[in-house]
Amino acid sequence: MSASKFQQQSMLTLRGSLLSLAILTFVSLTYLSLNSLHSSFSSSAQSSPAAISASEKQIIQPLRETEASAGQEESGNAKEDEEAGRSDGDDEITDLYHYPEVFKLNYAAMEENFKVYIYPDGDPKTFYQTPRKLTGKYASEGYFFQNIRESKFRTEDPDQAHLFFIPISCHKMRGKGTSYENMTIIVQNYLDGLIAKYPYWNRTLGADHFFVTCHDVGVRATEGVPFLVKNAIRAVCSPSYDVGFIPHKDVALPQILQPFALPAGGNDAENRTTLGFWAGHRNSRIRVILARVWENDTELDISNNRISRATGHLVYQKRFYKTKFCICPGGSQVNSARITDSIHYGCVPVILSNYYDLPFNDIIDWNKFAVVLKERDVYQLKQILKDIPHEKFLELNKNVAKVQKHFQWNSPPVKYDAFHMVMYDLWLRRHVIRY
């Protein structure tokens, strides 16, 4: 046999061997992949019927670190819960949440692990550290300042902290008559001092820092400090996209007027005979249109101005009790305490605003206890409300009562209240990378 023919046969033999090996490898990998895919589907079907996003998978990871200790402490925690007077109903997680089981597990992980460091700088007698008061339209800011110090989330060790709280109170500045221009200077100087004194801001350019402010004061006071607004997490009562609110980064703080004048309502549909109610100042375009179109309607109780106290004691609050749907149009700022008033008094809130991130929107499903509309729907408002089936209204009315605990502040804070929901939103936004 010639040398060339021998080489050709050898090459053919080698190619055949390589082809056989490739086919065998392909078949093996295909089998393993199908087997793995089958296992994944089986596991998913057993754990949850709903898909879980990548961010939620990242959030749930700390649970794996604490499963062992959680099992050992379960009996002790149950005893503590009983001593604290919590009923089983308080811990009931329903389909009002986007992912009920994920929320329950992540909430437990937050309670177990979450730590926040509060910068100690700043005189509490001026603009820092402590709340101005716990009443009025800025109460949410005041309660958070107080609750964070009462909670177990606070740590004195910055190396343990997931997030860093910048304790500057724009509400205090307003109380002392500080101009918006001077507010901006005060915020800028305070932040510059923290950056110069501590290494923590520069590790993430402020991505693991947050500040809390309610209503429009904090927005105007901080808009002149762009690197703070851009980088840090803002927990604000003005979560409107036209004032720079960034949904995946910032937190919508519920605006709550406490103490409430009357007890909570809900589960009382038979007492609600008025179709819709709103009374307030016409300090925004949507309110002007609402009053002009529906002020004289016989089925919608729409008042062009706030109800005078001279008409009777707590007349405004009592109307919430008699109404099925309470209209919540945006005012000078898109948020309004009327939303949480409606929830407290058991009246189904009708959100009538554009470009607005509702509080806890990434946790609870607002469509289960509220009617969410665009401003253009104001012209068909009555028909939209009348078209809601009675069975649907009964469900909304029942669910409003279930979410009331999330829209109330307490001192000290209690499980699932407004403070813990804000902390949960912050927990979802924590950053674990350090530079």
Automatic annotation (TrEMBL):
Cellular localisation: Golgi apparatus membrane
One Pfam family this sequence matches: Exostosin_GT47
Cellular component aspect of the GO annotation: Golgi membrane
Topology of this chain in the membrane: Single-pass type II membrane protein
Coiled-coil intervals: none
Major subcellular site: Golgi
Compositionally biased region (Basic and acidic residues): 76-88
Keyword Acyltransferase in record: no
Keywords attached to this entry: Glycosyltransferase, Golgi apparatus, Signal-anchor, Transferase, Transmembrane
Ranges where the Exostosin GT47 domain occurs: 111-387
Family annotation (InterPro entries): Exostosin (IPR004263), Exostosin_GT47 (IPR040911)
Listed GO MF terms: glycosyltransferase activity
Region (Disordered): 65-93
Family: Belongs to the glycosyltransferase 47 family.
The protein's name in its UniProt record: Exostosin GT47 domain-containing protein
Upper lineage: Eukaryota, Viridiplantae, Streptophyta, Embryophyta, Tracheophyta
